[in-house]
Amino acid sequence: MSIDLPEITLRFASLFAWLILCFFVAGMGATASIDAAAFYAQLNQPGWAPPAGAFGPVWTTLYTLMAFAMWQVWLTPASPLRKAAAIVFVVQLFFNGLWSWLFFHWHLGAWAFADSALMWALILVCVVLFWRLKRSAGLLMLPYLAWVTLATALSWYVWQHNPTLL
After folding, report:
1. Distance in angstroms (rounded) separating the CA atoms of residues 155 and 25
2. According to the model, what pLDDT value does residue 36 have?
3. What does the sequence similarity comment in the record state about its family (predicted)?
């Protein structure tokens, strides 16, 4: 099976578009997190909380994996399932970007926790939909689901243990 140049170009253009979207959301979250390290250091945290320096590399990896997962889904034949997967993916990205604003910029612990819990559910839906369309895409989303599981538990903990800050 041969792939012509316009098709190859279109495939890589779509990968580039998903990478841009994911890293645009990352940038929006980073904008809200300019003083995150100082704020994070003030919080009463559990012993299992990751160090502040872990978040940047982990999120960079996760955004890259998410973009590649969505790209794999995008390359599957057009269908209602693919459309649903793309919509859920974009919606969860919105809540992903919103979390940093809620937590780090506005210090709204309850809202950040609710956002994180909703994001977790949306990611789970993505995993299921992606898995049905392309198993490797579903697998690429599992580290993201695992990290947001930890982040949701951490959001709950710091919200509950920092009532004057959140």
Report:
1. 19
2. 86
3. Belongs to the TspO/BZRP family.
Q: How many CB atoms lie within 10 A of CB 111?
A: 18
Segment among 9-13, 78-82, 162-166 with least mean pLDDT: 9-13
Q: Are 26 and 94 in contact (CB under 8 A)?
A: no
Residue 73 CB-half CA count within 13 A? 32
| pLDDT over 80 at 1, yes or no | no
Rounded to the nearest angstrom, the gap between the alpha carbon of residue 51 and the centroid of all alpha carbons in its chain is: 19
Mean predicted lDDT score pLDDT of the chain: 95
End-to-end CA distance of the chain: 57
Architecture of domain 8-39+53-161 in this structure: Up-down Bundle (1.20)
In the chain, where the domains are located: 8-39+53-161
- 2 pLDDT above the threshold of 90: no
> For residues 123 and 91, what is the distance between their CA atoms, to the nearest angstrom?
10
Per-residue pLDDT at 52: 86
Distance (Å, whole) CA 154 – CA 140? 23
